[in-house]
């Protein structure tokens, strides 16, 4: 049987986000007897290239053709609209044909916009893996016209005003999670983090995991840290931000530091940087706080639930699709940072509650979000699209 050649383009560089982890987890676990992945990085390799290599995968760096990108992530290396249409699109079409690509599978806005038209012109099937909110322009105006399939990480993300009906194209496929049964000892991991930071072992450690961008609201996390500290005056409460800014020069890391200073919690905030693997650190904190708005379906939420780390998340975006409030975690008012204080206080003071939440979350996650489930659902889409090829 001839293998399906599936093309996965990404923008290379320093950022490694949830979409990368999800897509690469899928790629690494494809049946190599049936599927042949082709990975390309635009602009440069960078940390993402190293991450891909560490996974045992190969990739190609594409200095040309140049891509198009929104203003917030535009690079001098990118093309103008006219340059993209006149030069990049023909180059991309030739690339797809030369490499005998059957399916193009894109995973972020820049790649959707850059590869959707060339895929159509080259006669490839095109999968738009939608990881943004329901109001994303591309998902509402381009995907309905050019995508053969729109995969989404949550029902929340379903395009709200598509230019054309998408019922036959739209499908929810949850992000893949490698639910390693070897869970780190949480008490030992907590002790290690306290030792690393020079904190007493009874410190309450609250965490933010993920890239720093406006949607995830790391500054709101700092405000929640202050609220928790205020309701637990006799305990050392510390906030740990694991991750890097999504866009260089955004200043969100400095904004967190400045907000902590303004709120009087500078000594309680720790900028921890990116950790790989994240599990030891995530298992070592007392609670993960999800402060995002319009988050389609966050990876860290599921990963923490699997590890037995209680999650307190905003009642917004895809979070309510993952958490049953009071049973597998807590959902709070997304606009009130003080709302995080009560759940964290109860989790910290009531070990029976904390254990019950952790066990229920682990059971729920393992039944729904295994990597094997994601791979099976996605490859079924590949096979269906392949069946419709000429």
Structural class: alpha/beta
Q: Mean pLDDT, as a whole number? A: 94
- Strand neighbour order, sheet with most strands: 3-2-1-4-5-6-7
Strand content: 15-25%
Number of strands: 13
Distance between the termini: 16 Å
- What is the subunit organization of this protein? single chain
Unreliable spans are: none
Counted by DSSP, the helix tally is 15
Radius of gyration: 22 Å
The string of secondary-structure elements, in order, is EHEHEHEHEHHEEHEHEHEHEHEHEHHH
Share of residues in helices? 40-55%
Q: Based on CA inertia axes, which overall geometry fits?
A: globular
Major sheet: size, sense and barrel closure?
7 strands, parallel
How would you portray this structure in words?
With 390 residues, the protein is an alpha/beta fold. Helices cover 42% and strands 16% of the residues. The protein contains 15 helices and 13 strands. The strands form 2 sheets. It has a 7-stranded parallel beta sheet, sandwiched between helices. Strand 1, helix 1 (18-28) and strand 2 (35-42) form a beta-alpha-beta unit. The mean pLDDT is 94.
């Amino acid at each position: 049987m001839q293998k399906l050649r599936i093309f996965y383009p990404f923008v290379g560089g320093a950022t490694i986000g949830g979409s990368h982890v999800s897509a690469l987890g899928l790629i690494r676990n494809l049946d190599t007897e049936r599927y042949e992945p082709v990975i390309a990085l635009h602009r440069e390799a960078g940390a993402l290239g190293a991450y891909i290599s560490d996974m045992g995968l190969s990739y190609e760096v594409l200095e040309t053709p140049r891509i198009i990108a929104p203003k917030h992530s535009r690079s001098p290396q990118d093309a103008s609209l006219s340059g993209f249409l006149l030069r990049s699109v023909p180059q991309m079409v030739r690339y797809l044909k030369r490499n005998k690509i059957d399916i193009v599978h894109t995973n972020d806005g820049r790649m959707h916009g850059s590869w959707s038209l060339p895929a159509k012109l080259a006669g490839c099937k095109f999968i738009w893996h939608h990881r943004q909110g329901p109001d994303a322009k591309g998902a509402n105006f381009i995907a309905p016209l050019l995508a053969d399939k729109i995969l989404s990480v949550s029902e929340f993300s379903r395009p709200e005003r598509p230019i054309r009906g998408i019922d036959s194209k739209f499908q929810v496929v949850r992000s893949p999670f490698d639910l390693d049964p070897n869970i780190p000892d949480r008490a030992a991991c907590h002790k290690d983090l306290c030792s690393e930071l020079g904190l007493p072992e009874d410190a309450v450690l609250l965490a933010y995991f993920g890239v720093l961008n406006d949607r995830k609201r790391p500054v709101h996390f700092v405000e929640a840290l202050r609220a928790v500290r205020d309701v637990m005056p006799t305990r050392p409460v510390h906030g740990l931000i694991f991750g890097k800014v999504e866009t260089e020069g955004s200043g969100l890391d400095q904004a967190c530091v400045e907000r902590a200073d303004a709120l009087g919690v500078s000594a309680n905030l720790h900028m921890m940087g990116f950790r790989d693997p994240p599990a030891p650190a995530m298992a070592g904190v007392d609670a993960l706080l999800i402060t995002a708005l319009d988050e389609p379906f966050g990876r860290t939420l599921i990963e923490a639930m699997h590890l037995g780390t209680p999650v307190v998340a905003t009642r917004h975006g895809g979070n309510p699709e993952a958490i049953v409030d009071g049973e597998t975690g807590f959902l709070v008012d997304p606009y009130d940072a003080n709302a995080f204080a009560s759940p964290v206080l109860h989790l910290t003071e009531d070990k029976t509650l904390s254990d019950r939440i952790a066990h229920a979350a682990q059971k729920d996650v393992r039944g729904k979000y295994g990597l094997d489930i994601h791979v099976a659902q996605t490859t079924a889409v590949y096979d269906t699209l392949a069946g419709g090829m000429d």
